[in-house]
Amino acid sequence: MITTSCAVVLIVVGSSLDYGLCSSYTGMPSYQPKNFFLALGTLLFAYGGHSAFPTIQHDMRNPAEFTKSVVLAFSMMAVMYGPVCIMGYLTYHDTIRDSIIPSIQTVWIQQAINIMITVHCILTLTIVFNPLNQELEELFGCPQHFGWQRVLIRTGTMIAVAFVAETIPNFGPLLDLFGKLDLI
């Protein structure tokens, strides 16, 4: 949460610094309905953590408070996404592709954001992959205590994730597809 908040602040600061230079060189894209739905799919993917919800609720001290925690988490995400989307659109218009980070002109801000996002991803891997790991452990009949079987399955999961991340060069269309599937 702290690393993500710092990254958001740095993105807003970097976009603000670039506003004078970049906003005058970019044009507003023409409206195309398909672009709206692509953007909607990407946005919905960002909020699509429902596969982890049962595990999170099960692990809570007071599972009856789950609704409050979901509303708070989604509200905090909206507060973080809002300024990034607004500043990105106002500053860079249609020149942004899958990520706003390469559009930021100040190199040290770009690098700091990349470090913050990397730390965020590393710290959230345990939470995000826990439901998948538990399902795989149950599927393969692993004991519930720490053992070589659990290490093997969790290592295999990470190797598979790294393989997919390295072999798929552009996640944008894939995120759009999964976001659209969230609507179903």
How would you sum up the global shape? Answer: elongated
Low-pLDDT parts are none
Helix content: over 70%
| Whole-angstrom Rg | 19 Å
Total domain modules: 1
Counting DSSP E segments of at least 2 residues, the number of strands comes to 0
Largest sheet: none
| Sheet/helix structural class | mainly alpha
What string gives the helices and strands in order? HHHHHHH
Quote the beta fraction: under 5%
Mean of all residue-level pLDDT scores: 84
How far apart lie the N and C ends?
29 Å
Total of DSSP H or I helical runs spanning 4+ residues: 7
Can you describe what's shown?
Helix 1 (2-22) runs parallel beside helix 4, helix 1 (2-22) runs antiparallel to helix 5 and helix 2 packs across helix 7. This protein is mostly helical. Helices cover 72% and strands 0% of the residues. The protein is built from 7 helices and no strands.
Short summary of the structure?
This protein has 184 residues and is an all-alpha fold. It is built from seven helices and no strands.
Task: Please name the defining characteristics of this protein.
7 helices; 184 residues
What is the topological layout?
Blueprint: H1 2-22, H2 33-46, H3 53-59, H4 66-92, H5 107-139, H6 148-167, H7 172-182
Helix pairs in contact: 1-4, 1-5, 2-7, 5-6
